[in-house]
Amino acid sequence: MISNSGHIQSIAGIYLNSIDKTAAKPRTNIDASKIDGGDKIVLSNESQEFSSYLNKLRSMPDVRIDKVNFYSVRISNNDYKIDSQKIAEKILNG
């Protein structure tokens, strides 16, 4: 289980580097009764939640045509006004 997502890249880098340095060797003469099922990957609740959000984002269109059309019409009609005071307040207040 990887619970600290800040180290995922470093772990992946170590794993990928080790793959490049070692060649896969076929197994022969393995007693099937001695195999314990191998390694398992267990994802934390946080990573499962992140994965669901990531899938939702991937399914969304890159460009929202409805918004583009709305603002295009307003700009072409000279009806789009920018309130610099509101922008400044949002920048200062976060």
Provide an overview of this structure.
The chain is an all-alpha fold and 94 residues long. The chain has 4 helices and no strands. It has helices spanning 8-21, 45-59, 65-76, 84-93.
Largest sheet: none
Approximate helicity band: 40-55%
SSE pattern, N- to C-terminal: HHHH
Low-confidence stretches: none
Q: How many DSSP helices? A: 4
Radius of gyration: 26 Å
Arithmetic mean of pLDDT: 77
Class derived from helix and strand content: mainly alpha
Topology:
Elements: H1 8-21, H2 45-59, H3 65-76, H4 84-93
Short overview:
It contains four helices and no strands.
Features:
54% helix; 0% strand; mainly alpha; elongated; 4 helices; 94 residues
